[in-house]
UniProtKB/TrEMBL annotation:
Ranges for domain DUF1330: 2-96
Protein name (Swiss-Prot/TrEMBL): DUF1330 domain-containing protein
InterPro entries reported for this sequence: Dimeric_a/b-barrel, DUF1330
Species this chain originates from: Streptomyces glaucosporus
Organism lineage string: Bacteria, Bacillati, Actinomycetota, Actinomycetes, Kitasatosporales
Domain of life: Bacteria
Length: 115
């Protein structure tokens, strides 16, 4: 099932040379794991709450590929180029499959509440 790496990046100081190098090199770390950018700090409209910073979302075929990418030597080598200059939260999350309906989640929640 598809998985995503999602980052909420804050407090970046502008185009630091290390961050530019990170962006120049990241795609080569994604390619072996079939990772592709879906969102990369594009325009946003905050509808609820506050959202300081940027959003990055990368799609992978599954959680195994997403974890393998993050843990890879190639990515770990460039990671400090970003983390030394930008604060952020990063997570891996599994997506839902085709035909997903939120009723499935409600059924699980009701069973858990009844237990």
């Amino acid at each position: 099932m598809t998985a995503y790496a999602i980052a909420h990046l804050r407090n970046h100081p502008g185009p630091h040379p290390d961050v530019i190098a990170y962006i120049e090199r990241i795609q080569d770390t994604l390619d072996p794991y079939s990772g592709r950018f879906l969102v990369h700090g594009g325009a946003k409209e905050v509808l609820e709450g506050q959202w300081p910073g940027d959003v990055v979302m990368i799609e992978f075929p599954g959680m195994d590929e997403a974890r393998a990418w993050y843990d890879s030597e190639a990515y770990q080598e460039i990671l400090p180029l970003r983390t030394d200059h930008i604060d952020g939260d990063v997570l891996l999350v599994e997506g839902v499959g085709p035909g997903y309906h939120p009723k499935r989640k409600i059924d699980r929640l009701r069973r858990a509440a009844d237990a």
